[in-house]
Write a structure and sequence with these properties.
- Helix content is about 0%, strand content about 45%.
- Strands 2, 4, 5, 6, 9, 10 and 11 form a 7-stranded mixed sheet that branches.
- By secondary structure, the protein is mainly β.
- The chain starts with a strand and ends with a strand.
Length: about 120
C-alpha cells in the first residue's frame, strides 16, 4: 500500500489543522492506521492509531483530548484532526499502516511496514 499525507502548515497556538492520509494499492480496511511525528533532534513518536478490526482508537498522552483520528474506508483515507495546537506539537507528521500490529506494540514505529512521506506542522505565533 502507498500512503500520501497532506494538510500540514503553519498555525498559531490554539489553532487547528486536519491532516489527511490517502492510501492506494491495497485493501485499506485490512490495515491498522496510525500517525507518528518527529521533531528536530528527536525520535519518531507515536501520536494516534485506529485498529482495523474494531475501529478502536489509541492516543499518546500528550495529545489526548486534543487530537482525533478517524478513517473513512470508502475513501481509503485516515484523518488526524488536531485542535488546541501547541508549539510542542511542531513536527513532521507521518502516517503509517500495518496488518500485524497489536496493542502491545502499537506505539512502536517498527511495527508498521508502510509509511507515507511526512507533512510539516509548525505551531508558532
Amino acid at each position: 500500500v502507498q500512503l500520501q499525507a497532506s494538510g500540514g502548515g503553519l498555525v498559531q497556538p490554539g489553532g487547528s489543522l486536519r491532516l489527511s492520509c490517502a492510501a492506494s494499492g491495497g485493501s485499506f480496511s485490512r490495515y491498522t492506521m496510525a500517525w507518528f511525528r518527529q521533531a528536530p533532534g528527536k525520535e519518531r513518536a507515536f501520536v494516534a492509531a485506529e485498529f482495523r478490526s474494531y475501529g478502536t482508537t489509541d492516543y499518546a498522552d500528550a495529545v489526548k483530548g486534543r487530537f482525533t483520528i478517524s478513517r473513512v474506508n470508502a475513501e481509503n483515507t485516515v484523518y488526524l484532526q488536531m485542535n488546541s495546537l501547541r508549539p510542542e506539537d511542531t513536527a513532521v507528521y507521518y502516517c503509517a499502516a500495518s496488518t500485524s500490529v497489536i496493542r502491545s506494540n502499537l506505539a512502536s514505529p517498527s511495527a508498521y511496514a508502510y509509511w507515507g512521506r511526512g507533512t510539516q506542522v509548525t505551531v508558532s505565533s
